[in-house]
């Protein structure tokens, strides 16, 4: 699926899964205090991961719709983001040995997502500059 229609469809699919995730997350967080310890409480805590699995499927579907050049660009951005995330988390891990506060694993995705977004934006700006020159 090419062009604007494909992009809007992918955005709609992603937005739908994100809204479902938010709904399940809110319900899960509100329900958990009333659920006694045990399997049901664990299931409620993990329930938001079900829409996340759907989100992964949506992302993979969109990735497969891309042409080879766009896939390569995206993979390069993801590799750079993963490397930056490894560098930041390892660095912080060493600082934790000095008494810095322990960070939750929830901190890893925002680091990677930010690195991925910044890399993608920087690439876009550099490519736009090259197009204006040439």
UniProtKB/TrEMBL annotation:
The chain crosses the membrane at residues 12-31, 43-63, 75-95, 107-126. Keywords: Membrane, Transmembrane, Transmembrane helix. It comes from the Bacteria. The keyword Membrane applies. This is Membrane protein. It comes from Azospirillum picis.
């Amino acid at each position: 699926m090419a062009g604007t229609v494909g992009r809007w469809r992918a955005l709609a699919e992603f937005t739908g899964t994100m809204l479902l995730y938010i709904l399940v997350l809110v319900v899960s967080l509100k329900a958990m205090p009333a659920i006694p310890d045990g399997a049901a409480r664990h299931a409620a805590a993990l329930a938001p991961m079900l829409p996340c699995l759907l989100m992964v499927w949506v992302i993979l579907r969109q990735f497969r719709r891309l042409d080879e050049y766009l896939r390569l660009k995206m993979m390069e951005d993801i590799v750079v983001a993963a490397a930056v995330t490894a560098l930041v988390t390892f660095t912080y891990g060493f600082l934790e040995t000095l008494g810095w506060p322990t960070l939750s694993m929830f901190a890893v995705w925002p680091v990677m997502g930010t690195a991925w977004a910044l890399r993608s934006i920087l690439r876009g700006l550099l490519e736009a500059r090259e197009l204006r020159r040439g």
